[in-house]
Each structure stands twice: as structure tokens, then as C-alpha cells.
Amino acid sequence: MKLHKTLLAAAVVLLASGAQGAVVTLGAFNFDSNQFGNTLVESDGGTFRNANWLNTANANPGNPGALTGANFDTGIANIGLGSTPTYTIGYNTAIVNGAGNDLGIVSARFSTGDTFTVSVSTDGINFSSSIGFGPGLAVSTGVGRSYFYGGAGPFSSTLFVTPIDLSAFGIGNGSSIVALRITGSPEADLVRVAGFGGTSSVPEPATVSMLSAGIAILAFAARRRVKA
């Protein structure tokens, strides 16, 4: 009986552990570590990023590292200064439209701020109309960060977050997106676009494995109880 309870508890832990990532805090904002993006497509093939990368270390973070990963260490500076490439970020864990704001654009402000233009996709293929989010919508996190810019620096900045409600794009409550496109002007310094929370409607492979393990444990425990 004690073994059965132990196995059941382990199964519950496994079943619950894949639902949501760890919380990544930035000032007053809490992000889901599973929703920082996994893939990056650059409209110019990376030409702008290769000369305008941001990193807390003096090295080009590359693709997808510049705009993905559960941290705020890398990004792309001065988007819109002489060139306005578009960056498409894909999310293995979908960002769900829940109550309130669903995701945030994290930017490094070296000056007064810029406008980010965003479109979203529920299937990774078709994208919504673009919406501009101006500098007045950005909220200071009070967190300072120093970045190398294209090999020079480091330069000090303050991180800001522009909160976004997916309802603005016509995404229904409970529906989700798996990709977005973003660009900026006139000198936008983009660090991340990450989800504030929620779970994917399509579990990641690791989550599927954990769910399968949990189900197997429950089945094993049930068989032992029947034999007993």
C-alpha cells in the first residue's frame, strides 16, 4: 500500500511538471521560461544582426541565440537604423491568450525608446495584420544591464517591457499563438519577446515523455493493487 502511494505521488509530480516552465523575473514582470522562443527566421538572412548584435559577453550570439533562450543576455540593436529587417520567432510552447496581458517585448533603452511592429500566427504560416506598439506603452523594469554592441562597449542600458494582450490581434480567449513577427524603428533595441505564462495546447516532446512516464507508473500501480 505504501509503495502504491509513493508511485501515485511520483506520477502526479510527473504529470504536473510539464505544464509550465520556471518563472523568470524581470522587475515586476514574471515570464514563463518555456515561452522565450526556440527558432528565429531573419528576413535578411542575418546581415543586420551580424553587425548589430547585443550580448552581455563580447561575442556574436548568432541565430537563434540573439532573440531566444530564457534570459535577457542577448538581443539586436538599432533595428530601423538604415535597415528594418523582420524577425520571426517560433515558440515550441504556444503562448495562450488568457486574462490580461499575455507576452512582453523586452527592450534595452539607450535613449527615449522606439516603436515595435508586431504580427502573430496561430499556425506558424499565416500571420495577422501588424500592430505598432509605441514607446509610451513600455514600462521600466528598473533593471540595468550592460551590453556589448557589435564588439564595442559595454554600454549601460535600462530594460523596459512592453506588455501585449493577444486579444488586440483578434486571438480568442483560450486560443494560442506559435509564432510572431517583429521589427522596430527608428533605433529599436530588441532583447526578447516572451510569454508571461500559460501552457501549450500541444505539449513539447519532453512533456509528452513525462506524461507517458506518469501514465505508465499509474498503470503499474493499478496492476499491483488488482493482484493484491
How many structural domains can be distinguished in the coordinates? 2
> How large, in whole angstroms, is the Cα Rg?
20 Å
CATH class of the largest domain: Mainly Beta
- The low-pLDDT segments are 1-18, 198-228
Strand content: 35-45%
How many individual β-strands?
13
- Reading the helices and strands in chain order gives HEEEHEEEEEEEEEEH
Q: Which class do the helix and strand fractions yield? A: alpha+beta
Question: In one word, what is the shape?
Answer: globular
In CATH terms, what is the architecture of the largest domain? Sandwich
Overall mean pLDDT stands at 84
End-to-end C-alpha gap: 9 Å
Query: Could you please say which CATH topology of the largest domain applies here?
Result: Jelly Rolls
Sheet with most strands = 6 strands, antiparallel, barrel
Overview of this protein structure:
- The chain is α+β, with helices and mostly antiparallel strands.
- It has two domains: about 1-20 and about 205-228; about 20-200, Jelly Rolls (Sandwich), CATH 2.60.120.
- It is built from three helices and 13 strands, in the order αβββαββββββββββα.
- The strands form three sheets. A six-stranded antiparallel barrel has the order 4-5-13-7-11-10.
- β1 and β2 form a beta hairpin.
- The longest helix is centred in the last third of the chain and has 23 residues, at about 205-225.
- The chain is globular, with a radius of gyration of 20 Å.
- The relative contact order is 0.25.
- Residues about 1-20 and about 200-228 have low confidence and may be disordered.
